[in-house]
Structure formats: C-alpha cells, structure tokens
Amino acid sequence: MTPVLRKAKHSNDNEPEQPRETRTVRRLRAQLDEAQDIHQLAANPLLAAVRADRFRVSVTRSMWCFMACGLGFTATGVQAFLAGHLGPSDPMWWGAWLVEPAFAGILITLLRWEAQMLSQGLAVDDGPVVWLKRVLLGATLVTNVWSSLRPPDGKVNAGMVFLHLVIPLVVFLLAEVMPVIQQRCNAARDKAAEIVPPATPAPQGGVTPAAPARTGLRLPGHLQGALEAKANEVRAQGRALTAQDVQDALNVPEEYAARIAAQLAA
User: Fold this and answer.
1) Contact 145, 169 (CB under 8 A)
2) Residue spans with biased composition (Basic and acidic residues) (predicted)?
3) Where are the domains of the chain?
C-alpha cells in the first residue's frame, strides 16, 4: 500500500499548476466588460433619439425664458403708450399693464400649439396663423417705438428708442425661429431613431407577401395607419411609393415626405 500512495503523490506533483489571475488582470477584465456594455448601449439608435429629444427640450426652455424676458420689457412700452399722462390713481393706468401680458399669452399659446403640430409631422403654414403672430408682434413693436419717441416728460432718449425697437424685433424673430428649431430637432430625433428592419427570406414559390409599411419614425397611430394603407394601395398598383403619395396620406412638408418615401423604398 505504501508504494501505491507514494506513486499517486508523485503523479500529482507532476501535474502542471493552473495559472492564477492577478488582481490587476481581474480589474482590467471587469473594466473591459463594462466598456463593452457601455459601447453596446451607446451605439443603440434609440439612445441617440433620446439625447436629441432632450437637447430639443433644453433649447426650447432657453428660448421660452429669453422670450419671456423680452416680453416683460416690451410690457413697459405698451403700458406707457396706453396710459400716457395718466397716474396710478386712474384705473386705466393699471389696466394698461394687462394688455401686453394678454398679447403675450395668446402668442405663447399659439407657439405651443404650432410646436406640437410640428412634432407630429404636420406643417403649420396657414395664413391666419401667420397673420395672428405678425399682428400681435407688430402691435407690440409699434406701441413700444411710439412710446419711446413720445415719452410723458418730453425728453427722447436715444438708447430707449433703440431698445424699444430692437427688443420687439428680437421677440418677433424668436417667435419665427422657434417652430423651425422644433421641426429640425424633431427631424434629427426621427433620423436617429430610424432602424432598418432585417430582411425576411422569401417564401417558397417566389411570392413575397405584402408587408405593412414601417417607417421607423415616431408617428401617431392614426398617421401610421394612414401611411400603411397608402403604401399597400401603391404596392397593389405595382409601383413604388413617392413623396407625393406620402403627402396625400399625411399632411407633412415635402422634405419630410421625401425622406419617408426614401426609407420605405430602401
């Protein structure tokens, strides 16, 4: 028995020892696994879409803040134009302070509605909408310039005339630029969220069934349904979907419709 035990012990001594991972190797391996997970998540198109949408919200909030500051300044010019030589004892002096906030409230409500429509891919270029914005901002511009040229004390200040001219113009341009910012940011978000679905093999017999139109764009359910119905109708006619077909189904700008048609064709 003793030789056998001695032989077994000798055979175990001859087996190679498995190398042990050092603490540095384990730490680097954990960092590598973490880097791979981060890269996989960062490459997800949905993450890029979320970042684009957050950027849009940040820019929009800043624009609203600066517009509110500008409208607060123009309120003084409107009040001076309406109140004239009246004093605080006259109710009209106090009522004049409510005119510009009322105009600003209408304008802000209109801009919020316009931004929401653009986020849904609907163009807002109707004449009454454009004219309402221009009338509101034009009235603010005229009243501010007039009040600075005809101050109650009779002393014209060139700096105040300049500010009462420039600030209403800046507010007007902000009102025109904000829908453009919304539209471009939404287009960037939708482009980042586009995911090309994997190709499906054709069934036996060489006939490919009609597939529903999936754009990869974030469209409301009723708009997606209308687009799918139009795509199936065009497919039944044996032709490719065009930008005009997309505009017939959805009330979207030509550039947006062309991008949807190009993606569906791809």
Assistant:
1) no
2) 10-23
3) 45-193, 221-265
